[in-house]
User: Which sequence fits this backbone?
C-alpha cells in the first residue's frame, strides 16, 4: 500500500483528501504545517506528498525545497487556492511534480497522483539498472599502475580540463572517460560518445556538427550533431586518431571558440561541452607523419592519462576475474562458480593481447562451458584460446593433472621474473614467498635468464 502525506492547514481540505485517497486504498498521513511535514518526511517512508502552498510559518515552496534537498526522488504535488503562473513555475523549478488548484477536482487529482507514483517507480527502476550497469563499469585493480590512473581521475574529474586517454584496444579507455564524467560537475548532463574509427570520413563532420536539410544528397531532414547533443555535458571522442584532417580542423575551431556550424548552415551555434578523447595510436608519431594536427593534439592533451596493457599489470587479473565471474553468473542466472588456483595461475600466465576485454570474454566462455560448480581446467585447455608457456609456446595438454600444474607454475614464475627484470628480491616479494623458496623453484624448473649461468640479487 502506498503512503501519501497530505500537508494543509485547513481541516476541511485534509478530511476531503482523506476520503478520496483512502477510498482508493492509499494509506494517508497528515501534517497541519511545514514543520510537521518535515518531521513526517524524516520519520516515515513516504511514496508521495500533497503540499499546500500558503501556510502559516514555513510556506509550501520552502518546505518543497527542504524535502528535495534530502529526498530528491520523492514526488511532491503542490496544491493552492491562490495559484498563479509564477508560483507554479517556481514550484516546478524546485522539483514539484505538478501543481493543482483548489477546489480540487477528484478525477484530476487521482490521475495526477497515479502518474506521479508511476514515474517514481520507473525512476527507481532506471536507477537500479544504472547502478547495476555502473557496477560493471568500475575500474578494478590492485596494481600500482591502475591506482595511479584512479588517482588522476579523482583529481581531474571535478575540473573542466580536457583529457587525452591513450592505451591499447581493450584496456578500458571508455571506462576512464565515463569515470571522469561521473565525477564531474556535469554528471547529471549527457555523456555522448563518438567512435571516430567507425564513421566514414565523409560522414564524420555531419555526425559531430549536424547538418541542415538539403545540405548534401540524402540530407532529407535537419540533423543535430554530437556537439549539440552533448551541450552542458561531456563529449567523448573515441579513437580520435582516426579522424580526418578536415574534421580535426573543425573540432579545433569548436574547442577554441566554443561554437559550431552545421554542415550546409551559416549560423554559429554556441555549445558548452567538455571534450574527452581516447586513442590507441601514438599521436606524436601521427603528427610526424602529417596525419594529426599538432595544435589539436595540444588542445586535447591538457591532462594525459595512459592505461597500461594487462600484460604489464598481471596482479590485476585475480580481481578482474572474480568481478567478471560474479557479473556473468548473475546475468545468466547461474550459481556463482569458483575459480581454482590452477585456473587462476593459468590465466595470470597469459599476455592477453586483447587486454581486459579478452579476459572478460574468456571468463564468460569458461563460466558457461564449465559443467560443475567451479571452472574446469580442461575447459580452459580446450576453449581458453591457448595458454602461453614460459618459452612463449603453448602448454601441452597431455600428461597428468599434476604435470600440468607444474608446467603452469614454471611458466608463471618465469613470467614474474621477466616482469621484475630477474630481480630475485622483487620477484619473491611479488609472489609473497621467501627468496630461498624462489631459488628452489627456479632450480627445480631450470629457470634461467638467457645468457646467464646464474641469477643474482641484482639480475
Assistant:
Amino acid at each position: 500500500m502506498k503512503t501519501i502525506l497530505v500537508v494543509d492547514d485547513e481541516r476541511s481540505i485534509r478530511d476531503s483528501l482523506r476520503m478520496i485517497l483512502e477510498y482508493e486504498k492509499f494509506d494517508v498521513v497528515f501534517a497541519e504545517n511545514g514543520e510537521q511535514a518535515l518531521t513526517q518526511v524524516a520519520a516515515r517512508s513516504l511514496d508521495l506528498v500533497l503540499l499546500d502552498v500558503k501556510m502559516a510559518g514555513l510556506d509550501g515552496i520552502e518546505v518543497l525545497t527542504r524535502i528535495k534537498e534530502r529526498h530528491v526522488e520523492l514526488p511532491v504535488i503542490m496544491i493552492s487556492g491562490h495559484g498563479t503562473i509564477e508560483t507554479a513555475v517556481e514550484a516546478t523549478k524546485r522539483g514539484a511534480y505538478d501543481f493543482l488548484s483548489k477546489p480540487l477536482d477528484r478525477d484530476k487529482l487521482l490521475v495526477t497522483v497515479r502518474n506521479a507514483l508511476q514515474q517514481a517507480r520507473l525512476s527507481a527502476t532506471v536507477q537500479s539498472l544504472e547502478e547495476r550497469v555502473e557496477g560493471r563499469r568500475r575500474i578494478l585493480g590492485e596494481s600500482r599502475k591502475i591506482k595511479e590512473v584512479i588517482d588522476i581521475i579523482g583529481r581531474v574529474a571535478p575540473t573542466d580540463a580536457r583529457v587525452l586517454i591513450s592505451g591499447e584496444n581493450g584496456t578500458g579507455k571508455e571506462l576512464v572517460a565515463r569515470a571522469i564524467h561521473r565525477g564531474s560537475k556535469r554528471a547529471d548532463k549527457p555523456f555522448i560518445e563518438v567512435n571516430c574509427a567507425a564513421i566514414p570520413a565523409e560522414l564524420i563532420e555531419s555526425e559531430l556538427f549536424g547538418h541542415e536539410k538539403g545540405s548534401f544528397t540524402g540530407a532529407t531532414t535537419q540533423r543535430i550533431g554530437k556537439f549539440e547533443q552533448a551541450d552542458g555535458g561531456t563529449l567523448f571522442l573515441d579513437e580520435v586518431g582516426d579522424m580526418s584532417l578536415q574534421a580535426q580542423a573543425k573540432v579545433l575551431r569548436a574547442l577554441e571558440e566554443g561554437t559550431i556550424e552545421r554542415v550546409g548552415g551559416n549560423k554559429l551555434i554556441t555549445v558548452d561541452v567538455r571534450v574527452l578523447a581516447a586513442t590507441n595510436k601514438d599521436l606524436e608519431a601521427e603528427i610526424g607523419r602529417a596525419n594529426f594536427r599538432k595544435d589539436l593534439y595540444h588542445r586535447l592533451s591538457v591532462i594525459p592519462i595512459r592505461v597500461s596493457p594487462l600484460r604489464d599489470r598481471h596482479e590485476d587479473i585475480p580481481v578482474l576475474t572474480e568481478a567478471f565471474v560474479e557479473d556473468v553468473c548473475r546475468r545468466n542466472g547461474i550459481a556463482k562458480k569458483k575459480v581454482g588456483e590452477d585456473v587462476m595461475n593459468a590465466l595470470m600466465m597469459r599476455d592477453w593481447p586483447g587486454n581486459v576485454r579478452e579476459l572478460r570474454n574468456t571468463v564468460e566462455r569458461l563460466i558457461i562451458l564449465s559443467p560443475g560448480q567451479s571452472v574446469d581446467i580442461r575447459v580452459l585447455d580446450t576453449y581458453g584460446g591457448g595458454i602461453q608457456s614460459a618459452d612463449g609456446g603453448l602448454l601441452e595438454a597431455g600428461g597428468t593433472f599434476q604435470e600440468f600444474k607444474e608446467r603452469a607454475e614454471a611458466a608463471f614464475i618465469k613470467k614474474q621474473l621477466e616482469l621484475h627484470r630477474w630481480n630475485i628480491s622483487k620477484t619473491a616479494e611479488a609472489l609473497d614467498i621467501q627468496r630461498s623458496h624462489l631459488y628452489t623453484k627456479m632450480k627445480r624448473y631450470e629457470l634461467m635468464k638467457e645468457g646467464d649461468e646464474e641469477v643474482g640479487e641484482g639480475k
Notes: The radius of gyration is 30 Å. The chain has 19 helices and 14 strands. The longest strand covers residues 274-279. Residues 106-136 form the longest helix (31 residues).
